[in-house]
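Translate structure to sequence.
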């Protein structure tokens, strides 16, 4: 696997993860029969939460892998 293939795969994984969390926020809003505005807010809030969670997971993984090398 080349570095370019790895980069493309990680981008797909990142955007898929963020989309899944954003869709979860929208589905929660739909479950309580919210208006379209609140569904959109659920999507945006979920996307922000997903991006923050992804950043934390990448950070934690890198910290953990650097500890094993020592």
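Result:
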């Amino acid at each position: 696997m080349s570095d370019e293939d790895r980069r493309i795969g990680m981008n797909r994984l990142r955007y898929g993860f963020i989309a899944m969390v954003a869709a979860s926020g929208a589905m929660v809003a739909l479950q309580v029969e919210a208006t379209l505005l609140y569904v959109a807010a659920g999507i945006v809030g979920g996307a922000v939460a997903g991006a923050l969670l992804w950043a934390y997971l990448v950070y934690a993984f890198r910290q953990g892998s650097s500890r094993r090398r020592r």
